[in-house]
Model the fold of this input.
Amino acid sequence: MNHNPLLADLRVIELASMVLAPSAGVILADFGADVIKIEPPGTGDLNRNWHKIPGLPISDFAYPFQIDNRNKKSIALDLKSEAGYEVFCKLVTDADVLITNYRLRALERLKLEYDTVKAINPRIIYALGTGFGEEGDERHKPGYDTVAYWARSAIETQIFPYDGWLRPFPYGAGDHPSGMALYAAIMTALYQRQRTGEGSKVTTSLLANGAWSNSIMLQAELAGAEFREVRPRENSYNFIGLHYHTSDGRLLKLSLVNFEKNWRPFCEAIGRSDLPDDDRYATAQARIENMPALIQDVTEAFKTQDVAYWHRVLEQHDIPHATVPTYEEAANDKQMQANDIIIPLDHPTQGKIRTVNSPFSVGGTDKIEPGAAPGLGEHSVTVLKDAGYSEEAIQALLEGGVVE
Done:
């Protein structure tokens, strides 16, 4: 491993809970930044216990907290107290970055908003993640990815099935891409500071990231495009992106983007080399007019063999496809392992397990090995000592309940 990680000289203060902002902080930690997570005494980050909510996979291990808080330090600090606020000010004085997703009114009430922090440390990069942005009537509303990212972007409008209803979106699936945007904003601001010597505030929101994720369809609306009516699968507009059942009950997903290249090889792969010369499918217009019949022909073809067979022949013909996996299959995906997407984690209580890596690498440097997410207040004393507090002062803060 690299003994001098890329961001080893970066000091980060994290005032954040749940997923959006902590997911930006964990990428900084992956590359060696010293990330100090400030949590409220007693409760800590809500995400420490969110794995217990009904519907999530059952475990005594706080797996959501682990993924977004590995390699960080935790100090349990009462920011509502005068002494606790003084500790915060001392910590932020030497920091390079402050990350937060506290709600705007809470930041103002606790004197944690940008102007106040900037007065303490003019070189700070202040990174704010919100649900709905800093302007407008909804700026103070609570925002989670289920509502601010998935619903408000109209992504759910696009993907709700024709029959039935979707299960909930995976926990954090909108937060993590939004956290990546916050990370990118932080690094852009650090580059700006390198050029100008000045700190700055960067911000992103779940609302903005949801819109960006669905920006092509939103651009269609903005450009005045005419949206098509929703149709059932058997009468879909195009067979090329549908799911197909195999003989062993698996679900296969196609993606024939380069149709001119893939059409004949695809027909050969599914044992229907007659289809390109069939008058019903010989031209683009003919296929449009006879799409229900084409969907039926392709559907019946896939039912004749198991998924292993289809993987083999579709790969031979270079057709983009995938099996819709179980979580067990996804977690043991050999391609993910080959590319260090799933990596080992030697956890002090869980033993040798595995975890999900952050999704990019930088040539010439290594990430630090993933470690356990910290216990609440696990590093309180260490952080205070590093900040210059004496043994007596630390003891007074502990006895006063300012620090745990």
Observations:
- The mean pLDDT is 95.
- The first helix runs from residue 20 to 30.
- The chain has two domains: 11-214+343-399, 233-329.
- The first strand starts at residue 11 and ends at 15.
